[in-house]
Structure formats: C-alpha cells, structure tokens
Known about the structure:
By secondary structure, this protein is an alpha+beta fold. Helix content is 41%, strand content 18%. It has three domains: 7-303, Beta-lactamase (3-Layer(aba) Sandwich); 318-452, Transcription Regulator spoIIAA, CATH 3.30.750.24; 460-600, Jelly Rolls (Sandwich). The model has no long low-confidence stretch (mean pLDDT 90).
Amino acid sequence: MSAVTLPVFSYLQSLHARHKDNRTGALASYIPELTRIDPDLFGIAFATMDGYIYEVGDSAATFTIQSVSKAIIYGLALEDHGRDEVMRKIGVEPSGEAFNSIVFDERNNRPFNPMVNAGAIAATALVKGANHAERLARILDTFRRFMGRDLDMDAAVHRSESDTGHRNRAIAFLELNSGMIQGNIDEHLDLYFRQCSLLVNTVDLAIMGATLANGGINPVTGERAISAANVRSVLSVMSTCGMYDYAGGWQFNVGLPAKSGVGGGISAVLPGHLGIGVFSPRLDAVGNSERGVKVCEDISRNFRLHLFEDRGSGQDPVRRFYRGTDVRSSRVRRQEEVKALDHDGHAIAVCELQGELSFMEAERVTRRIGGELSGFASLIVDMSRLKSVDKVGEELLLMLRDTLASTGHGFAIVSLDARLRAMGGTNSFGAIDDALEFFEDQLLERVLPATDAGPSRVELKQFSLLADWSAEDFDTLMAELQPRDFEDGESLIMAGTPARSLYFLVEGRVNVMIAVANGALRRISTIDAGNVFGELALFGQARRTADVVAVSSGRVLELTTEGIARLSEKAPRVHTALALAVGRSLADRLGRANREIQALSR
C-alpha cells in the first residue's frame, strides 16, 4: 500500500492549500535580521505518540525558534531547581501586557510568567552550570533531547539580537536591581539571545510538542527530555500564557497548550496524543504567525482537538487485523478454489474496529492500514463493534476509501448501522461473511484460469473426496446413487427431520440455513458443486440441525440410508472408505475453523 496516501496527510495537504494564499500580516522588524526570511514559507507537521511524522509544505525550511524556546528553558529551570524554588522567582499569571513589556508582579517581586521576556530571562538565569560554556552546553543538550537532534545557531540573528536587544537589557538590569535575578547579566542575556537564535524547522516544533504530549519522552528517540511532573507545569503555563495577547482567544478557539515565536513558529500540544508544528513568518498584531493561528484553529475545529472536547474512552480502535488466508467465508468451495484461496487469500485484508472513532482513533486506524497491511488488493473495514463514529472519523475513512479506489484497491464496509454501511458505497454489507465471500469471488476471477473458474457441472470423479478411489470402488458407489434435480428455492433438507440421505452436489449451489431468535432463517454457509452435504446420514439416525435450500437449479446424487446399509453389508470396504473420506473432509473443515478461531483470538 506504499502508493496510497494516508488520509491525514491528504487533509494536511488540503489545509495547506486552503491557507497558502493568506498573505496578511508582516515580518517581525524589531530584530532586523528576521526581515530577511522569505515571507511566503509555510509548513505544517504532526508528530504522533509513536513517533510518526506527517509533514506538508516547507516543513524542512529552517527558521529561528525565538520565543518558542521559552517553554523548553522554563522546563530546564524546573529540572534544575524544582517547582517551589522556580515559583518564588517566576510567577504563572498572564501579565495582560505585551510580551516585551517592562512590567513585573511587584507584590511578589517577580516576573509575571516565563512566557514573557522578563520571565524568560529570569528562567535562563536559573540554568545551572559552572560557567557560561557549561550552561550553554546544558541548554543545547536540552533542546537536543526535545527535538531529537542537535540544533545549529543562526549567528547573524544572534548578532542582530545582541546589537538591538536594548529593551531586554533594560528588563534584565531592572530584575537585577530588584533582586529577581543574580549573577552576570551579560552572560544571562547572551544565553537568552543564543537560545532564541537556534535554527529549527516545522517538524522540530511538532516533535517538541509530541515530547510534551508524551510526558516528557521524545517519541522518536525514546529519550526523556524532562520529568513528567515538570511537563505538567510547562503545559499549564503554555495554556494560559503561551500565545502572547491572544492567549485567551487561543484557549477559547483552539484549546491546546501552545507557544509561538516571532520567527513564525508555533508548537502546540494535545496531551497524550499529538504534537503540532506550524511555521509561517508573517505575524499578526500581537506577534503570532497569522497563518499559523488560522491553521491551528481549523485543525482543532475539524479534528475536535480542543482539550475540553469529549473524545470518548481512549480505547484502541483496532480490535484486530487479519487476512483472507487466516479467515475465509463460510462458502464451501471446489478444491481448485480452496487451493487458490489458500495461496492468494492474503490479498484480502480485514480491519476490525471497536469502541469510538474520532480523529485520533481514525488517524491510528488509517496509518496502521497503510503500515501493517501493505500488499493487499481488497480491504474490509468491519465496523460491527463500533459504538460511535464522529464526523471527522467518518471523513477520514471516506478519504481512505476514495484513495484506495483511485489506486485500484477494493474497499468494503461491514456494519448493521445503515449510515455507517453506506460509507462503503456499492460495497456495503451487514455481515463480515458476505464481504469475505464477495472479495473471494473477485479474487478467484483474477487468479484462476477461465477453465477452472467454475464449471456448471462437476463430475463425481472430480470430487476431491473420492480422489484416491479405485475404479472398482467408484463403480460400486455409483450403483447406489440416485440422481435428483432441484430448482432454485427448493428445500432439500429441513431441520428436525431424520437424516436419511447423503448428497453429492454435482451441479448448482445450496445454502445451509438455521433458524434465529425471531424465526427467520440465517445463512451459515454456501456449498458449491463438487462437495457433499447431509453427512449425518452416515453416522446414525440423528435429526437434521439445519435447512438446506437451493439458491440455483441443479442436481445432486443422493445416497439414501438404505443405500448406505447395502454398502455396509455387501461392500464394507467401500462403506468404510466413504465414511473415512467424509470424516477427513469434516476434520479438514474443523481444522480450518480452529485456525480461524486462533486467528480471531490474537
């Protein structure tokens, strides 16, 4: 399935195309070097909890991280000093002012929060180290753990920030004067300017978000960046203070912890599920990426990612995957068809779903289909055990269906719910057995030569049951068989009646039916020409347990209980051979049923 585009990727492509022409906003100008970036760059990336990356647009283009770094440095300060000590130095309340305002929480003698410049400088001042070089090395190593790679610094931006960062110097010296920070102010500011000048791309921001979403463990590398307890503190402050003066509107409209930077990046977090990275350098009036905010609003709304959205139980939506070689339909086929399905049935794949299906579950389902079921020709999505499917989950499955159809793959939905079943289009079924049989028929048309594709009549000598019989034994059996023609809809066996005949089906097709609770008949298998039914007649005076109804006109060769008795008396060797042959056939079917049970128990 390598040629199939995953639905989430297709969605991100359409989202990128929808916002690409939005050229409102302006580049950050208070740092002169930031005006040199291409204003039309635009990337979007998702990083999942198992390290899978979706990326579209200019996702590999690098830009300086700027204020997005504040979340990581705050986490490092918490690692170095603990929550209580950091809280004495830096608050967690929104300031109500611009990010670079020279205002402080005068009652507590500290910056308002670590997401404004005053708080970020104070957080950088808390980073431990014997000297400037060691502190810088620890900062860079923390970013490496978050992003999963070493980051380079943009020397030109660092120089530009150092040359023009007079307001930040004023903030730092006021903090020193008030006792909010201690130590060498020039070193603190240099580290602050360097952390803001680190080069990242959109995927880095998505992985940063996914690391926070994953309790502090980078889902790509498996390395811990910060402790889970400190992740909680970082996400809490990102939620209330991470988006400059739009923090309240962001939480109302998007509802995810996030941090933006004037370089045009946004890193957002859906805890326990997903990290989002967006990059577009044109900024709105408060310093957030104009496109980035709009994209995240769309993502949150379309995928129902708001933290306060009801996303159900969180149960794994995939109950099991299996192939057509693991489980077949109940159709009892000719030997040539059985061999073909044993050889090529892996081309039929079944994905059995359960629980609830919204964006996160549907993303996991569609990606696992792409990753685990490569090489299939037809996919059956069994939705019989789904409790609910929201609009987003439905749209992603429909995108998967259309993508599969465009690449020549078969697709079917199984569900008792008519609305869900309709998602399969013409290939919609109420039972998994019907869907399996449908795709088995298609597969056999492709893989069997035309001469083997289902003759209208199967001669008795062609029955696999009698394949190793001698001519003499065969003639002895033939002498006891009575031909009987039947019409479509005719009942050949009725449940509850004595088992008086064994039938060799030489032409046509029959269904085996049982009565269900409401009195209706339910098909449990279909038998094709070349097979036997009514085996109970060989093994005593039992009564029939099911109806057998013709679904076409045809012919059987009937061996009555009187004929069976004559064989037992006059040709005991033939009688024994027949009983053993039928027994082997039943054992083979039981063995397959056991293997299917094992496959469905995984």
